Amino acid sequence: MTDTVTFDEGLIKALREAENIIFFTGAGASAESGVPTFRTGTDSLWVDFDVEDYATLDGFNRNPQKVWQWYKGRRENMAALQPNVAHHVIARWQEKAPRVTVITQNIDNFHQDAGSDLVIELHGNIHHFKCLNDHPVESSSVDNSEEPPLCEICGSLVRPDVVWFNEPLPQEAFDHAEMFSRECSVFIAVGCSMEVQPAAFLPAFAASGGAYLVQINPEASIFDKYAYTLRGKAGEVLPQLWQAVWGESFN
Length: 251
Ligand code: BV8
Known about the structure:
This protein is α/β, with parallel strands linked by helices. About 35% of the residues lie in helices and about 15% in strands. It has eleven helices and nine strands. It has helices at about 10-15, 25-30, 45-50, 50-55, 55-60, 65-80, 85-90, 110-115, 170-185, 200-210, 235-245; strands at about 20-25, 100-105, 120, 125-130, 135, 160, 185-190, 210-215, 230. Helix 1 packs across helix 11 (about 235-245) and helix 9 runs parallel beside helix 10 (about 200-210). The structure holds ligand BV8. Ligand BV8 binds next to helix 2.
């Protein structure tokens, strides 16, 4: 259990008065749900799986079956997991502030499952699919397939609708993320290593708009020198932050 975290009075005040809050989440926000992170911890994905083989278009084109199976296994693992208390605190914060936006790098759909209404998915969603020519594909028709199906429109291979490395982020999603970051009064990064661009540039937009920058992370990150750091796990710190700001326990 994380020790009780002390909160800066300025942060408490900023959160009580905030009209517009952003929660920017990475793999660490889902870690306590049991979803592996990418670069930290003993079960991180990129330690066991080569990014080039599994999270690039070239890797998929080299071995579509292998990549399809890897994502199918991740979907099945995620199906057995649940959003954790961090997702629920973020979702309930909507009751307390006029506008709460979740900008996530995660593809697990856990923010939506926990009840967050405004979720911008920068890196796609593991439960969504498209073909190599970007035709949309109905999930229910493919998500149990043992191998990548063929698009009914053009016959090309179907792939997960996630953003692989060296692929551009969805333009509309990133434009909205940038706009909201520039407008927010508090920007809280939850479980982000800040290693992946261009997502990791969003705090700079928030800072340019004068936002209070916060991070929740049990480990040091690139963001330490820019943000007010709450050193601890998301599922332990966020309920304490709720208590400190709203004077009521989160349950
Ligand atoms: C693009 C979807 C251009 C797939 C993912 C050299 C330098 C800089 C950048 C680059 C470079 N070379 C190439 C690039 C660009 C590259 C990049 O940033 N590479 C980095 C790694 C060097 N970026 C791209 O390729 C992007 N596209 O640039 O396109 C372009 C433009 C136009 C036209 C053509 C091309 C695309 C990036 C998206 C890749 N897709 N995921 C999938 O998931 O299968 S990235 C992957 O990393 C996930 O989305 C993940 O969320 C994301 C970021 O990582 P984190 O979420 O931060 O996770 P991580 O494990 O790293 O850290 C977890 C953190 O949580 C840690 O700090 C840990 O301490 C903390 N934590 C752990 N437990 C807890 C916790 N915190 C709180 N509570 C806990 N309990």
